[in-house]
Amino acid sequence: MTTLQEKRARTGRGLTSILVGAIALAIAVPVAWVLFASVKGKSEFYGNPWSLPAGLRVQNYVDAFVDARIGRYFALSLLVTVLGLVFVLAVSIPAAYVIARYDFRGRGLVEVALLAGLFVNVNYIVVPIFLMLVDWDRALVDVLPDGFFIDNPAMLSLVYAATSIPFTIYLLTAYFRSIPADYEEAASLDGASRFAVMTRIMLPMARPAVTTVILFNFLAYWNDFIISLTLLPGENKTVQVGLLNLFTAQKAAADYGRLYAGMVIVIVPVLVVYALVQRRLIEGMAAGGVKG
Amino acid sequence: MTTLSPPPTATEQQVPVPETRKRKRGNGGFVAACLLPALVLFALFMVWPTVNVFRMSLYQWSGFSPAMRFVGLDNFTKLADDQQFVRAFQNTVALLVVVTVATMGLGLFLAAVMTRQKLRGRNLYRFVLYIPNVLSVVVIAAIFSALYDQENGLINGTLRLLSLDGLQQVWLGNQKVVLWSVAIAMVWQSLGYYMVLYMSSMSSIPEELYEASSLDGATAPTQFFTITMPLIWQNLRTTLTFFIMSAVNLSFVLVRAMTGGGPDGASEVLLSYMYKQAYTNSSYGYGMAIGVVIFAFSFLVSLLVSRATKREPLQF
């Protein structure tokens, strides 16, 4: 190998490193800029956009949290997300276990239907879901004049859970299948019931898959705004919809501080979770081929 | 929003069930109790609404009134003459092409550099690049609105500082520019995701292949095209399906939050137009006909792309 070639290779490596660094900066700078802007005062938004904040204007956060009700929306989002996770796990774990371990009539059909469900994006079907719930409310108008299905956070959780069933069962079934059957056989020989085998033996062994499922569904539920915008048209809002409203209002009022503070409040929990479970999230994604 | 790939391990699913899982008598109750809750929810909130999209596309219906009129394929023939629909269709296709080319190119480049060159600070880069994938679309829309802001945005503000006022744009208000602005936000959002996907399949290519070709004097770019690309071909094909899905779905949520389809329909995409028809315009049946077109479009494009990119799988 000649020195000229070596030199050229080295220059190439240098250039690519610079390019990679530039791309990483293009990703990081806008996020960091929002963090800085969230503590800026009103006058600081004019002029040089690169100026560092003059001081820590915590008032922005107070405004966002209290006046713009981001605090309230945050609590509702947390509730809806947790409830959705409880629902989806409660119905998907037993179903995935049975699909993986029991042979029953129609299993092939169930599997194909769930697999097809992976390709139905929720954006296509929000409108029919909404109208279906409106219909149910109308049918029940004598019993419940205020309506029950629309504007009900628990219903929102249920819809989240229902629409993530295909993905959740797909991931869990694959994992259950990879666990050797010996453990269950030993347990049932010892007289454990089918239910006990599932909950006491299999569930603890499937913990990695359950964690992955929780992670992805947490992100999906927490970050959703299309479904919650549609199903919660009233006073109760999720934090994403609240932020969207704040963002639309701020366009007119040009009161940026409050908006950026609201954004930070929404971003921080997700970034903390991401930083904590980074490895598992990325590995799980590579293994399951999940599109976020 | 979570969509899912066709399972990369689809072949494993067809492995016959081991003997231990034979049907036992008296399990019916247990199986039903475990399965039914999930199936009922799935049928009610996914199967039935999907069926409804197709069924309703044949009706004229405002969505709220009980008056529903069967109109056959009228909704579809109307679509062909609807200029706004045609524009939304063109925008979706344009985003599909531009975002796919840019994201795939950059993603492959980044993945190749990170796996092949053992770049210093690789984990930090990966951490940073993947961040947009965990942010919500509302946050991304807000971030980009801050960047694109006409007066005080990061981009126009920086151009002013550099006395390059001539390059300033009304990024989200100019009909000619807005689609590019949306495309940039889409690439920004998904780049890290695809990079990680490509990295994981590149890391399974054996090192010897590269060593052998280095001895033959192959440069890094040559190696990329002769070794890396052919060996991750299947993975590339899978991601093409993702690109089609995200061009349809991500573009919608982003447009919904960032531009609302404006100015004057210049950034309207198929799904956002469907929403407008179904909600604002109360032409529910018409909206669902658009939904059917989107279904058919993404299905057909996926099929065509998958046919066109079919190669004999290579083994290493």
SS-based class of chain B: mainly alpha
How many β-strand runs of chain B?
Answer: 3
**CA gyration radius of chain B, whole angstroms:** 24 Å
Helix and strand pattern of chain A: HHHHHHHHHHHHHE
How many individual β-strands of chain A?
A: 1
Report the helical percentage of chain B: 55-70%
Specify Rg of chain A, calculated over alpha carbons.
25 Å
| Gap between N and C termini of chain A | 45 Å
Low confidence ranges of chain B: 1-23
Question: Of all protein chain pairs, which has the greatest interface, and how many residues does each chain bring to it?
Answer: A-B, 110 and 108 residues
Mean of the pLDDT scores of chain B?
Answer: 83
Parts with pLDDT < 50 across at least 5 consecutive residues of chain A:
none
In short:
Chain A has 292 residues and is mostly helical.
Please give the structural blueprint.
The complex is a heterodimer of chains A (292) and B (316).
Chain A: H1 3-37, H2 59-67, H3 70-101, H4 107-117, H5 122-139, H6 153-163, H7 165-178, H8 182-189, H9 194-205, H10 207-223, H11 226-231, H12 239-253, H13 256-288, E1 290-291
Chain B: E1 3-4, H1 10-13, H2 28-56, E2 59-61, E3 68-70, H3 74-81, H4 83-116, H5 122-134, H6 137-148, H7 154-161, H8 178-202, H9 207-215, H10 220-231, H11 233-258, H12 270-280, H13 284-308
Antiparallel strand pairs in B: 2-3
